[in-house]
Write a sequence for this structure.
């Protein structure tokens, strides 16, 4: 059975309609994190548990760095001298380590959800 | 409550009866995520091995795809592929080249789902055909579970083929067990393909921002038109 060729458009619209109600962009806490001399400042970020948080990561070094955490399921390259935004959570109470992919021995930190 | 969270994945099969039925869309591919990393270079090898007792022409068919890609910015990633094929009793041949561009539309975790688009343009030499596609990518986390869906609209044209439009749905539910081992279940639906099967995904992290990603799975055909089994493998070397 061959059906009309506009079906892909209908599928696209149907899927979008299904997912749009899930889009929520409520006000959320904003935290800042800096990378300087291949270190994270602060190295411990305390955030409220079960709350989505917007994290602004400033890379003050001239070289790129990657904010990386399997526990947070985040991986984000921040170019030298620039900033990037990483959304994390909502997280259950606990500790979630992160590190700088390009300088993993020095650039380490953790998110503490409490 | 739990069912509500999964409703968009559950509703995907409802879309399938309205897919157009055409002749050549029977190949398992991969499920794309919507994310882009700037400055990242990827060298990718993908292979697909078919088993189909109903169709000797594609039984034991091997398809290989070798690509190199680069993240041009925080939003755009481009890749070029050479696609080769080896059928039973025939030698390996380069069949096609493909250009691919991925566009990350939203930040990961910003909204309830993460969104991206994939655009592909393929030139098939033997069939003297072109194929262009646009794919909507959506991904969502539920704790350690990640659900990803790809919905593609495809148009094929050329002197060696009948001009036609096609569509395809790919979906994956993956459990983030550990970086080197993530079990998943994948679903593929196209004109002559309806298949589902287990996949394992993982990545070995190397020094200096390098990593080796891999995926392996067996997709079992659920209809007569589908290949009985499709074995898919992927190896991707990523570096900066």
């Amino acid at each position: 059975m061959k059906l009309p060729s506009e079906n892909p458009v209908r599928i696209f619209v149907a899927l979008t309609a299904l997912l749009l109600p899930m889009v929520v962009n409520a006000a959320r806490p904003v935290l800042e994190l800096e990378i300087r001399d291949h270190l994270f400042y602060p190295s411990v970020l305390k955030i409220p548990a079960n709350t989505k948080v917007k994290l602004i990561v400033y890379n003050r070094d001239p070289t790129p760095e990657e904010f990386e955490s399997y526990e947070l399921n985040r991986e984000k390259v921040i170019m030298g001298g620039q900033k990037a935004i990483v959304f994390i959570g909502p997280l259950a109470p606990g500790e979630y380590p992160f590190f700088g992919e390009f300088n993993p021995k020095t650039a380490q930190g953790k998110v503490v959800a409490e | 409550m739990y069912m509500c969270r999964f409703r968009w994945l559950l509703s995907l099969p409802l879309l399938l009866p309205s897919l157009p039925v055409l002749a050549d869309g029977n190949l398992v591919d991969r499920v794309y995520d919507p994310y882009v990393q700037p400055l990242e270079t990827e060298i990718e090898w993908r292979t697909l091995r078919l088993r189909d007792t109903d169709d000797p022409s594609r039984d034991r068919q091997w398809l290989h795809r070798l690509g190199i890609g680069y993240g041009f910015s925080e939003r755009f990633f481009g890749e070029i592929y050479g696609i080769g094929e080896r059928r039973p009793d025939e030698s390996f041949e380069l069949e096609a080249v493909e250009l691919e561009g991925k566009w990350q539309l939203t930040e990961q975790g910003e909204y309830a789902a993460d969104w991206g688009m994939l655009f592909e343009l393929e030139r098939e030499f033997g069939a003297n055909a072109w194929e262009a596609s646009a794919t909507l990518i959506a991904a969502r986390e539920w704790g350690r579970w990640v659900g990803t869906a790809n919905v593609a609209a495809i148009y094929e044209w050329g002197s060696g083929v009948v001009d036609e439009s096609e569509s395809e749905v790919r979906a994956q539910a993956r459990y983030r067990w550990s970086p080197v081992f993530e079990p998943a279940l994948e679903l593929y639906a196209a004109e002559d393909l309806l298949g589902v099967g287990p996949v394992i995904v993982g990545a070995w992290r190397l020094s200096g921002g390098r990593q080796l990603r891999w995926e392996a799975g067996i997709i079992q055909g659920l209809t007569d038109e589908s290949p009985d089994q499709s074995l898919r493998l992927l190896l991707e070397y990523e570096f900066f």
Q: What stands out?
A: Chain A touches chain B through 38 residues (CB under 8 Å). Residues 49 and 114 of chain A are 5 Å apart (CA to CA). The first strand of chain A starts at residue 30 and ends at 36.
